[in-house]
Amino acid sequence: MDHSQAIASNAAEQYLLGELKGELRDQFEEHFMSCPECARDIRAGAAFVESAREVLRSKALEPAGARVGADSTTSRLAMLFRPLILAPAFAILLAVVAYQSAVKIPLLESSLSRAQAPSTLTSFSLIHESSRGGGTNVLMAPADQPFALYVDIPPQPSFASYSIEVRSERGTRFALTISAEEAKTTVQVLVPASRLGPGQYTLVVRGSSVADDGPGAEVVRYPFWLQYKRSLNFPNR
User: Fold this and answer.
1) Which of 26, 68, 151, 175 has the highest CB neighbour count under 10 A?
2) For the chain, where are the alpha helices, taking DSSP H only?
3) List of residues 6+ apart from 150 with CB closer than 8 A
4) Of 130 and 147, the one with more pLDDT
């Protein structure tokens, strides 16, 4: 059995439902051992079946008090209607397998492919702009994409580490810590997509010695305005 035959005959679904018998079952088992797509469907379906069994098993078990006095008629009715309960569960199983094969797995593979493909990262230098220098940088970042900020940290031999905080009027938006060794060269701060909204921010660098247990001494700050390419409204300066 090749892959096209397995798809055309819904072999994965029949296999999970126990409807694939004899030689066809053997052929499909031999096929999905070497077919990543069918093996993926079988794993997903088997996990769903096991979960469905646990749910149905818990629904079928009644408390001990409720079973006292139950007669054989009740038991026969439970057995009679159990297939009616199982049928929707298997229908959901088929829907889940179909959804994973047609939508979810291709989307995951597409995302993985994009993540592994070479790409560019928008970067901005704040090195020449600080509270001690010129005006405030206006950064036009791409919407819904990460970007990087480059900063220099003035060397201070007394500091063992540095904290980098990005602040707005509402307080610290995110922070990270780097070692004194990392601070010897230009530092790249990666800003996750959509982590900061449009507005005014300040990147503050503080230094800490080994004995410090407080916020540390401020070393340098870099103010900037952040805008996104989908917005053409620049702040008044």
Assistant:
1) 151
2) 3-8, 11-16, 22-32, 36-60, 64-67, 72-99, 105-116
3) 123, 124, 125, 126, 127, 186, 187, 188, 189
4) 147
Report the alpha-carbon angle 38-39-45, nearest 5.
90
129, 224 contact by CB (below 8 A): yes
**61 class by beta-carbon count within 10 Å (0-12 exposed, 13-18 middle, 19+ buried):** exposed
- Residue 50 token pair: 């096991």
For residue 165, what are its two tokens?
């905080």
Tokens of 36: 């990543």
**Main-chain phi, psi angles of 164, to 5 degrees:** -120, 120
User: How many C-beta neighbours within 10 Å does residue 65 have?
Assistant: 7
pTM given for the model: 0.48
Token pair, residue 187, equals 């530092």
Amino acid sitting at position 14: Q
Per-residue model confidence as pLDDT tens digits over 184-232: 999 999 998 778 999 999 999 999 987 666 667 899 999 999 999 864 4
Contact between 10 and 93 (Cβ < 8 Å) = no
Distance CA 62, CA 71 (A): 14
pLDDT tens, residue by residue, 25-56: 888 888 877 787 877 777 777 777 666 666 66
Through-space distance between the first and last CA atoms of the chain, rounded to whole angstroms: 70
Which residues make Cβ contacts (< 8 Å) with residue 74, sequence separation at least 6?
none
